[in-house]
Specification:
Elements lengths: L28 H15 L8 H14 L10 E2 L2 E5 L3 E5 L1 H11 L27 H14 L7 H7 L8 H16 L4 E5 L6 E8 L10 E8 L2 E9 L7 H25 L8 E5 L2 H8 L11 H12 L5 E5 L8
Parallel strand pairs: 5-8, 8-9
Antiparallel strand pairs: 1-2, 2-3, 3-4, 5-6, 6-7
Helix pairs in contact: 7-8, 7-9
């Protein structure tokens, strides 16, 4: 770090400053701050616990170490509204949605019942070009809104694929999402206690859904203790030659997610020794996972097959894949 103008003297010429603390705006700032906070907590002899009186005493000690202010219970953070009681926590972005409607002039529009039309297939040449900056700004706001709106995941995933060259058809799809928000601005995530921390995952795939490259879209959502925890909708990296292959790749993504959740709960000391449940509605994909005889006909998905089969062979601590006849919407 160079010496600021006006500070230089004869003793500092040709020298630089050694930076001991991270500056705001740097990517490593949150990591450096958390490491500093963790060291202070460890020095006080703390471990993770849930004790009201101890938390109050900790706040008093932290005021001696850092410049802190007690803001009470969390109510609003980065556009996310938090409503909590002794039995539940509700997250929403209602004000964020209303601001988006005002910005786009859609406060008086007619609401849509779904964020995207059923079986709608957008193409890269769908209509005339539109303002790219405006399109990217709207889609970017919808991406952030997806943090508390899993019902938007699939629709936002679709419109995000045309950020580099948006057309009128793509902008119409974005406006439909906004019309859908008009009818449900206060929707969000509800977390309640169900007395367990069972990990479950539901997977599905839209085979060859992309008209431009015929790639499939994978979708999954995971639950911990009956509460929605993570969700994702993303186009697959390669073309699937069958619906079974597309579903199988979605299962592989789901297995990775539940294993990550298991590691997370173990680090927090909250993991319960129960099977990790993975639900899929494609019988062919389930047969491939359980029966190694299919290996000769599935060399193109060999890595995913070995990965899932390995987790099944590990027994109760790995995944139990169950048949579930559902029509799982990826949004």
């Amino acid at each position: 770090m160079h010496i600021p103008p006006g500070f230089g003297t004869a003793q500092t010429e040709g020298k630089v400053l050694k930076l001991h603390r991270s500056l705001y705006g740097l990517k490593q700032s949150p990591c450096a701050w958390f490491d500093r906070f963790r060291k202070a907590m460890v020095q006080m002899g703390y471990k993770q616990r849930d004790d009201g009186s101890e938390i109050k005493r900790l706040k008093q000690q932290l005021t001696k170490e850092f410049e802190v202010k007690d803001l009470g219970h969390l109510r609003y953070f980065l556009g996310i509204e938090v409503s909590q009681s002794a039995k539940r926590i509700y997250l929403s972005q209602r004000k964020y949605v209303l601001d988006l409607l005002t910005e786009t002039g859609m406060t008086g529009c007619r609401p849509a019942f779904t964020p995207i039309e059923a079986n709608q297939r957008l193409t890269k040449d769908g209509g005339s070009p539109v303002d790219r900056e405006q399109y990217q700004r709207l889609v970017g706001r919808l991406i952030y809104l997806s943090h508390t709106r899993p019902d938007l995941a699939f629709a936002v995933s679709v419109v995000s694929q045309f950020m580099h060259d948006p057309r009128s058809q793509h902008l119409d799809a974005v406006m439909r999402i906004i019309r859908y928000l008009k009818g449900s601005p206060g929707k969000g995530l509800l977390y309640t206690c169900h007395g367990n921390l069972q990990i479950e995952c539901y997977t599905d795939a839209d085979w060859a859904g992309s008209v431009d490259d015929r790639r499939s879209t994978s979708g999954y959502c995971t639950f911990i203790g009956g509460n929605l925890f993570t969700w994702r909708s993303k186009k697959q990296n390669v073309v699937a030659r069958s619906t079974a292959e597309a579903e199988f790749r979605a299962m592989a993504h789901g297995v990775c997610e539940v294993l990550w959740l298991k590691i997370l709960l173990m680090e927090l000391g909250l993991f319960q020794e129960k099977p990790l449940l993975l639900y899929c509605d494609n019988k062919a994909a389930l047969d491939i996972a359980h029966n190694p005889v299919h290996h000769g006909r599935t060399k193109h998905i060999e890595i995913d097959r070995h990965f899932i089969k390995e987790k099944l062979d590990q027994g109760s601590s790995a995944c139990h894949i169950l048949v579930l006849q559902i029509n799982l919407l990826m949004y």
